[in-house]
Amino acid sequence: MNKHIQKERTYMKHLKIEEQKAFFTRGENWMVVTDMTKEDLLNLAHAAIEEEDFETDKYDEALLPNPAHKIIYQQINSQLTELHNRRASFQEEVRNIYKDAFNKYCTE
Predict the structure, then answer these.
(1) 35, 25 in Cβ contact below 8 A?
(2) Measured in whole angstroms, how far is the alpha carbon of residue 30 from the centre of its chain?
(3) What confidence tens digit (pLDDT) does each residue in 59-101 have?
(4) pLDDT > 70? residue 21
(5) Domain definitions of the chain by residue range
(6) Confidence (pLDDT) at 6
(7) CB atoms inside a 10 Å sphere around CB 94
(8) How far is C-alpha 42 from the chain's CA centre?
(9) How many CB atoms within 10 Å of residue 25?
(10) Mean pLDDT over each residue of the chain, to the nearest integer
């Protein structure tokens, strides 16, 4: 599993830079970012919203000589980090949408 422990707390890393390549998690496996599918991206977005311990390696252009890896990693890391940072407000919005629908259709 892609977990490591820091001060008695387990963190799940979903994106990493290693050996001059960018990787993401697909289940229990590390895959090169150029092999990412739409489903993989949706799974990462779901993890960024749902997992409190979501973690990625910080983007560092100097560690990625491959231009495709640079672009993909930078964009995905940026979007997932923003999504993770806004997860509480996003989850609240979703709850309110379903609450309004529930109240509208279930109380009639």
Answers:
(1) no
(2) 14
(3) 999 999 999 999 999 999 999 999 999 988 888 888 888 887 7
(4) yes
(5) 3-106
(6) 41
(7) 11
(8) 9
(9) 19
(10) 87
